[in-house]
Structure formats: C-alpha cells, structure tokens
Specification:
By secondary structure, this protein is of the alpha/beta class. It folds into three domains: 2-304, Ribonuclease Z/Hydroxyacylglutathione hydrolase-like (Metallo-beta-lactamase, Chain A), CATH 3.60.15; 321-437, Nonspecific Lipid-transfer Protein, Chain A (2-Layer Sandwich); 443-508, 3-layer Sandwich (Rieske Iron-sulfur Protein). The chain has helices spanning 48-51, 68-71, 89-97, 153-162, 186-211, 244-253, 275-283, 286-289, 291-301, 303-312, 321-333, 336-342, 385-392, 398-404, 418-426, 429-441; strands at 2-5, 11-14, 19-22, 55-57, 79-83, 102-105, 111-112, 118-123, 132-138, 141-147, 165-171, 215-219, 345-351, 356-361, 369-371, 379-384, 408-411, 447-452, 455-460, 474-476, 479-481, 488-490, 505-508. It has a six-stranded mixed sheet with strand order 1-2-3-4-5-6, with helices on one face. Strands 7-8-9-10-11-12 form a six-stranded mixed sheet, with helices on one face. The protein has a five-stranded mixed sheet with strand order 15-14-13-16-17. It is globular. It starts with a strand and ends with a strand. The chain binds FE2/S2 (inorganic) cluster. Residues 463, 465-468, 482, 484-487 line the site of FE2/S2 (inorganic) cluster.
Amino acid sequence: MEIKFYGHACILIKTKNITVVTDPWLSKTGAFLSTWFQFPDNTDLDLTEIRNADYIVLSHEHLDHYDPEFLKTINPKAKILIPKYTDSYLYDALKENVSNEVIVCKSLQKIKLNDEITFCPVVQSVPIWDDCTLVFETPEGTIVDVNDMKITDKDMQWITQHFTIDYLFQQFSGANWHPLVYPYSDEEKAKMAKHKIYTKFRNVKQKFALSGAKYLVPMAGPPCFLDDEFFEINFSDQSIFPDQSVFYQYAKDEGFADKTVVLLPGDRFDPRLDCKQISEKNLRNEVFTNKRGYLEKYRARRQEVLKKNRESMVDPKTSLLEKAKEHFNPLIASSEYFREKIAGSVLLDISGECPEKILVDFRKANDSVKLYEGEDHFYTFKISSAILDMVLEKKLTWEQLLLSLRFRAERNPDIFNEFLVVFLRFADPASYKQYELFEKRKDVSDTFILHHCDKSFEVQKYCPHAMGDLSKGEIVDNCIVCPNHGWTFSLENGECTNNKASITVKEIPPN
Ligand code: FES
C-alpha cells in the first residue's frame, strides 16, 4: 500500500486494487479570488494517479478542499464521496461542475469501498461550520484526516472508540481574517497572531495525544499569498499562517517531534523510514530556508493568473441597494433567533464606480436594508462593489469573501459576534434552524473543580463556542483560556473577555 501526500489536504491512498484521494487542491489559480495559493507549489507534480483515482473524497466546500477546476479534469468514472450536511451547497456545486457520480455519505457510517479500504465520515458535531473528519481503514492501519475540522474531544473520543488510529493528518495553521483586516496597531496584531498560533498548536498537540495515533502529519495549511497586496503576509509576525518549520520547532520544544512527519508535495509516507530524517531533510528545502526567494519565483510564475483575476473584478455601475435587499431581507426574516442574537446593524461601506453606504439592521424582521443615514452600527465591512456584487449574485459565498482577505472591517465594540459570522457563513434558513436547535439543546451542565491561587471554583466544563474542554484550559491572568480556539473567560464572573459569551463559574467557599 502507498500513502502519498500531494500538498495542503490532498492524500492519495493506493492499494493493489483501489486508489482513493482526498481534497485535491491543484489548480494554478489558487483559491478565494486568487488570494490563496498552495504552499509549497504542488501544481507541476505528475497528477495522473490522482486523475485516475477510483474515489475522490471531499471533506467540505472550502475552495482549498473542493477545487472545481481540477475536478473537471478527473476520470469521469471516478466516484466523488461527500459528507451529508444540512444544506446541499457542496452537492449542488458538484452537480453544476462535474458529470461524475456523487455519493452523499452519512456521518458515523462506514462504507466499504472494496475489500481493502473502508471509509467513515465524522461530521463536526458542533454545527458552526460544515466540516468533516475522513477516516480510512486500510490494510496497513487507520488514517484519520481531520483536515480543518474543529474537532471536539467528544468527536475524537467517538473515533478512538471505533478505530485504532495509526496516522493522524491535522491542520496546524489557521485560516482566519482576524486580526489582519482590522485596524489594530502592528504591535497589537502581532500579539493577537502569536496568541492564535500558540492556541492552535496547543490544540493540535492535545488532539494528537487524545487520538493515540502513532504519527502526526501537519497539513491543510498554510496557504501562501502571491498577489502584491498580500505578499508580505508570508513573512509577517502579524500573520496567523505559520508554516511547517514553525510547527516542527514547537513539536521539538514540546517533545513530540519524533512522531511528527513534515511532508512535502509528492512525498510518499513510509512509516518504516525514520520520521525525523524525513522531516529534517524536508525542512532544509529552499521552501523553508529561503522562503522569500522561493515565493518570489512562485509569484513570477503566477503573474498571468493574478492579472486575469484583477481584470475579472469589474465594478457595477449602479447601486447595489436592491440586490442587498433581495439577499438579506428573506434571510433575516427567516430567523427570529438570529435577529435576537445579532441584535444590531452592519454597515456596508462600498467603494468603486458607485460608492455608497448600505445599512443592514438585524433587529428588524422586515425591510431590514436601507441606505445609511448615520445610524449606530456595531460592524463595518469596507468592500469594493465588484466583490460585494459577486456575493449578492451568489458567485462567491460570504465565507469565501472573508477568507480572501479582500475587505477591511471594524468592530464597535471590539468584540467577536459569532452569530453574525454564522449567519453570513450559512446564508441558509435550514442551517439557521439546525444551529438554533443545537444551541438550545446544548448541554453545558457538566462542571469541574478548579483550584487556583488558594481558591476553588466550580466551572462549566464545555466552552459555549464549540464545546472545547475547559478543564484542559490554561489559567492566564485569572482567566481560563479554552484550549480549542482561545476564548478567555474570567474566573471572577465567567464573562468572555473578547465577546458576549459567558460560562458559569462559582467560587466554592472554604470549609
Ligand atoms: S471551543 Fe472554540 S474557543 Fe472554546
């Protein structure tokens, strides 16, 4: 059997009789309006084996996992497997773009692909994102590809109860627009980025320990940025996209580098070889030792792609007000829950041929969209009319826009509104309902006892964000920091320091 890594989140698993490929992101146009490109470049590899695979398994609809241009080039007989999500976005998109058979697979159910390989999708149990861990039982062990999924401890426990994991492939480098698009000082951005990177690394380390896997392959990031507007992000201390060399150093410092395998696109993963030698040889590659030089050559190869991308963004010559009404009004009307949770207005500050300011008031069930006349608002999107038009025309999703970094934003007050992001991300009434049901039924009654500074506290065990296990959180400045994504809760009153969430915390009086 062969396990071959093709870069980012693409793994090829090949036995005598079957070839299975995950998340092939291989187009030279990159993703997210050509802001993201594959790092390192994997597009000039021999892709014959991928194109001739029997099964292509896609974890979710992000364009660095679902690459429609590449999928148009695969063998039409290859079957495409996707997880069952509440909405049919990925299924519909595939049906529009490829003629291959698409099979929708239910979460937690094993599918026998042939006598050698079974596949089991594990859809994220917290419905904030559509995402899925891909589990493959093979003749030479079980491969668990977590990719970008915000896997909870409970999700991982389910997997370990049903499989003995040999190889864990997991994202280690984040994908977020905060803090890059916000008007913080350079020092503030660098401090926030450092915190996010540390939290992510710590989370990967914890999940690896919980999985009991023999090997960890850090994957599914980072992208690189080749457009001049974003090029310096590749080298900036304000970036939340660390590369494999930074993670490997962390693994060394934390004592798990001997089980961490840094792979480059085209590498075969053979566990009989010395992992340390593989990683250290790869980390001596120019990709890491002369990153700027490597990326300057890569950027030169993509000039034509970048030029075409710029030319494709054409500002409409008329107001977007009516399109914004058509887009937002039915979505806002569909969910009283989101209206109450978002509870404020968002300003669209639009530049381009027809600059204008549009207000979206989430408190109003009807006629929520109007031209701005100085009203209070808690969030501002500064965005070009060309890009907003793509979103309103459904050529680009809100999440694709956010990941493209091709906007600027301001928050007042400067706190994260999870509900606004979920609302935009899904833009789908059925998904809103599912999220509402999950939130209302969510059982956060478990508690644990925390001893800190000669005091004892009874503390809510699971984080209100995505069920991170707070009993594994660090205590910093009298706050408990969630190990999953770093939300920070005061031990004095349980309130989150950077958004409106809270947990229950009770100080236990001394006997
Ligand atoms: S689960 Fe995301 S911050 Fe706690």
